[in-house]
Amino acid sequence: METPPDHAYPDHWEADVVLRDGGTARIRPITTADAERLVSFYEQVSDESKYYRFFAPYPRLSDRDVHRFTHHDYVDRVGLAVTVGGEFIATVRYDRIDARGLPATAPADEAEVAFLVQDAHQGRGVASALLEHIAAVARERGIRRFAAEVLPANSKMIKVFRDAGYTQKRSFEDGSVRLTLDLEPTAESLAVQRGREQRAEAHSVQRLLTPGSVAVVGTGRVPGGVGRTVLRNLLEAGFTGRVYAVNHAFAEDLRALDGVPAFRSVAAIGDPVDLAVLAVPARQVPEAVADCGRHGVRGLVVLSAGYAESGPEGLERQRELVRQARSYGMRIIGPNAFGIINTAEAVRLNASLAPEPPDRGRIGLFTQSGAIGIALLSGLYRRGAGLSSFISAGNRADVSGNDILQYWYEDPDTDVALLYLESIGNPRKFTRLARRTAALKPVVVVKGARHSGSAPPGHAVPVTRIPDATVSALLRQAGVIRVDTVTELVDAGLLLASQPLPAGPRVAILGNSESLGLLTYDACLTEGLRPSPPRDLTTAATPEDFRAALTLALSDPAVDAVVVTAIPHVGETGTTDPADGGALGTVLRETVTSVPGKPVAVVHVEIEGLAEALAVVERSARGPAGSAPAPTAAPPSAPPRPAGAPPAPTASPAPAAPPAPAAPPASAGPPSPAASGRIPAYPAAERAVRALAEAVRYAQWRRQSAEPGKVPEYLDDAIDESAAAALIARLLGDAPDPHGVPLGAADTRELLGLYGIPVRPTLPAPGPDDAVAAANRLGYPVALKTTAPHLRHRSDLGGVRLDLADEAQLRLAHRELTESLGGPAELRPVVQAMAPRGVDTVVRAAIDAAAGAVLSFGLAGAPSELLGDLAHRLVPATDRDVAEQIRSIRSAPLLFGWRGSTPVDTPALEELLLRVSRLVDDHPEIVSVTLEPVVVATRGLTVLGANVRLAPPPARGDLGPRSLPSY
Description:
Blueprint: E1 15-18, E2 24-29, H1 35-43, H2 47-54, H3 63-70, E3 77-84, E4 87-97, E5 110-117, H4 126-140, E6 145-150, H5 155-162, E7 168-173, E8 176-182, H6 187-209, E9 213-217, H7 226-236, E10 242-246, E11 256-257, E12 260-263, E13 275-278, H8 285-295, E14 299-302, H9 312-327, E15 331-333, E16 339-342, E17 349-352, E18 360-367, H10 370-382, E19 387-392, H11 401-410, E20 416-421, H12 427-438, E21 443-447, H13 468-477, E22 481-483, H14 486-498, E23 506-511, H15 514-526, E24 530-531, E25 535-536, H16 543-555, E26 561-566, H17 579-594, E27 600-604, H18 610-620, E28 681-682, H19 685-705, H20 721-732, E29 741-742, H21 745-753, E30 762-764, H22 768-778, E31 782-786, E32 800-804, H23 807-821, H24 824-827, E33 829-833, E34 839-848, E35 852-859, H25 862-865, E36 870-874, H26 879-888, H27 906-922, E37 926-936, E38 941-943, E39 946-950
Parallel strand pairs: 5-6, 9-10, 9-13, 10-12, 13-14, 14-15, 18-19, 18-20, 20-21, 21-22, 23-24, 23-25, 23-26, 26-27, 27-28
Antiparallel strand pairs: 1-2, 2-3, 3-4, 4-5, 6-8, 7-8, 11-12, 16-17, 16-19, 29-39, 30-33, 31-32, 31-33, 34-35, 34-37, 35-36, 37-38, 37-39
Helix pairs in contact: 6-11, 8-9, 10-14, 11-12, 14-19, 15-19, 16-17, 17-18, 22-23, 26-27
């Protein structure tokens, strides 16, 4: 494939961005066809802005100016424009210059940059977004610095440069401010970029959920149908804004429908429209989008089907829908969406097809499936839980779970985030956002399509090749509560939204059924909790008996959580009293309110009225005062861990971190639960205990995340990053194979050695004399092993012979090996000096284009290969990460003295994991590393085998300028 010349149009520079106010715009290179757009744009710029740009009155552009500003070589002279509706609203250009400030070509690495933004669009963050993109373009073209001349009175532009986070210098020359920016990304510039991204994306979702007016496009002329249903739901919810019914088939004299104004088009509505719900056939959607865009509609909910879920033609139709909507600055929920709900008293928006609208509450719910959305809404409604917001994104062609997390992060009405996901378009970004959100409020995820190997129909997203077990481990590293079913999603959400977080895993069990108590006890042990023996109140227990027992348990400092079990009270006549459920529920709520601070869950079997009595406070509350309490972090307690494995060591405080991506909401920090007394009820002990166990693990993660780990400084002493980079560049060559190249043994040892990872050498032994010569060189005792792929590390098949103490044993082993398994050419035998005995482990790192670098660890052989007992962490890993990683595998006790064996050197193992993490983080060209086996002895460890693969580094979208995904 021929490489296009540098002056070819760089379409990869095109990008859609979300601006500060939540609207969208498109950034693209300026071309020779843009002359009229440029002139029209310039005519709409004020004289003051023109003066700031040219340092003199400049009322109009000359033909020479227009030619200059529209003709670029896309190398030394580059111009970018921001467009909305196809028209320019801002431009930026750079010209490469030499040390004297004169026009230059490469290798000159400095450029002069200048911006111009229409006055009507100033303050929307347009210049900041442009700076990110023009800086990325410049770095791609070998430019390392920007120079800008700015008039002192142009404070807005000076602020854009000052706040960007780049290293910069400032001087005052000839009446202007000269700014020089180093374009190499810094921790501060990345933090600034992510902070702006968070605020912009959150605002874009807020605009969708808090409209002042809604138009339902496609409202039927007769009752029934999708559009008419949405209109009815909007009105029945008591939407506080204006509602309009729109259908191009309405009679010309129709003025109202169901009591709201009716129009044949959005353009005919005289007032602004913030949100349009499209319920028209897919073939009519483009016309409806154009109608909305021309009228200035700010967002769309597209209920229409017939897009990517219907095949290739539908996929192209979906892409065109996104392009069209974004060209007008609109964001889309859908297509094939179920709708959105916002229960805030000031909004009361139900722009959905939900048959049972939820009460107001503190749970946020996002789903990519309409059917699952119906089931979740129904389940939450039946169990008395309320929602703050609900978004069913359908094919999620634009607004995704990442955008909703950005919104929920700072939404004061949402305390728990529940997400049903069928695909994760940007796993790297999702885990970053989830980690930040989970530090403030629980994030619970259930993922469908876990084993299909592809995205569901309609989800046009990149497919990650990471196994589901690895995805689950990475989500948990980010603090996400990963559950397996939508039932578990609701179970966990109910507990987290109504109860404080537990201080630890110690659980008290009390109730009026010994059998139900034992089931709960067993479930606690299965989930890794530490239950006390159940307290049986007997079947004759009254509500007051429950009050006394629950008060005692909640007051016990040795108890972190309580599970109450209950069966119907049977009186002397052998009948049950329906009022008993309500009485017991009232007593339990009153007790929890009087002795707060610890979570309580109720397991009941067929007690009529109990669940309703436990949830009665929330069901009756429609305003803020009746909202369920937010979860709170409790004092630390010993976390559960595999039997025989000691707790991970506490990391020392990390060095000062760069500025946070965005300031936490005003409600940040452990919120206090409201005194609502609401208690979640479950029909089975296993469900209640599983939800409680998830809360225990989340609380443990939250306490630990308050003191994040760090990468120890001692690693720098044995790392030569520049030498490794030079070696990698030499090995890849000038035209690297895009599929990657495996390194030979010598190159692998050299590269790993530059990071303080010695690999025990091997010498070839094709014949017995070669084996003896190798052993004499290495020193006895030695190991003889094959390197054939089908026999590698297979001592069970006889491919490895250990502890050969002399020449006779070595010759005999070589003869037996070649006679039983094959000739030397097939076996490729090698000799290696014996390592101290210990536990065989495996360390791997692999790069996934979507999720990034993943560090994996397990015991070598059957535990990792047969049982899948591996632990995974995202790179870069900290000392806390690797300490937890080692201890999180099920076979961890073998490292810590299981059954009286001598514990091995886990600190040395932790250091090795940190070195591998640092290696792949420093050099993205390293796409895979495998160290197997790594023998961990009582003192030190030995790497006996290693494989490294290099390839051109994949693109890192998370380090580039902000942009919306384009699938």
